[in-house]
């Protein structure tokens, strides 16, 4: 079987979404603002907390790893915690309270207004991200949302400090752009701080 046309089309569609981001000054400025927020947070001794579901959970862990370990070069570790990794905590909160509170409860335990929460959701409707963002807003914890589609509840209720909505209805295309943005933020943080 020859899948070359399908393969080419997947790359073409991915490039189109990234070009839509590249040609949208609002989104570019939001990414710049997010970079500055992360740099300022680290300069003041704050931490970054990240969370998402499914592929977005993997992205949260991936980006935390880039910040704690290294991105382009060896340097001091940066505090970044993926709230998606401790199965005992996740299952305890899910069982004792509700799955919708698995990230909020961890922010209650660890986050201060000096930190930043990065919530990753392709729909803008992930209930556990929504609850975490509501809590963040309540305590003055700044947040960056990697979002998509029409921005969902998060956009409608203006829950994120910075809400970056990828202009695509297709989950894989949104996730691909989220990863480019995440990598870009890691690179800027590393470049400025070190």
From TrEMBL:
It is an enzyme of class 5 (isomerase). Binds 1 zinc ion per subunit. Its EC number is 5.3.1.28. One of its GO terms (cellular component) is cytoplasm. InterPro entries: GmhA/DiaA, Phosphoheptose_Isoase, SIS_dom, SIS_dom_sf, SIS_GmhA/DiaA_subfam. Catalyzes the isomerization of sedoheptulose 7-phosphate in D-glycero-D-manno-heptose 7-phosphate. This is Phosphoheptose isomerase. The lineage of its organism: Bacteria, Bacillati, Mycoplasmatota, Mollicutes, Acholeplasmatales.
């Amino acid at each position: 079987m020859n899948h070359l046309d399908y393969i080419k089309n997947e790359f073409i569609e991915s490039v189109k979404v990234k070009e839509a981001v590249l040609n949208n000054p609002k989104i570019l400025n939001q990414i710049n603002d997010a970079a500055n927020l992360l740099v300022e947070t680290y300069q003041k001794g704050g931490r970054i907390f990240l969370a998402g579901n499914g592929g977005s959970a993997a992205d949260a862990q991936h980006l935390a790893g880039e910040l704690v370990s290294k991105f382009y070069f060896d340097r001091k570790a940066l505090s970044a915690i993926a709230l998606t990794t401790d199965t005992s905590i996740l299952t305890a909160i899910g069982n004792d309270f509700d799955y919708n509170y698995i990230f909020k409860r961890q922010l209650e335990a660890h986050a201060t207004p000096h930190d930043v929460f990065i919530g990753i959701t392709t729909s803008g409707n992930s209930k556990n991200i929504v609850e975490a963002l509501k809590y963040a807003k309540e305590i003055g914890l700044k947040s960056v949302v990697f979002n998509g589609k029409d921005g969902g509840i998060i956009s409608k209720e203006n829950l994120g400090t910075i809400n970056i909505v990828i202009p695509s209805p297709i989950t894989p295309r949104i996730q691909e752009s989220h990863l480019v943005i995440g990598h870009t933020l890691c690179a800027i943080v590393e470049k400025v701080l070190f």
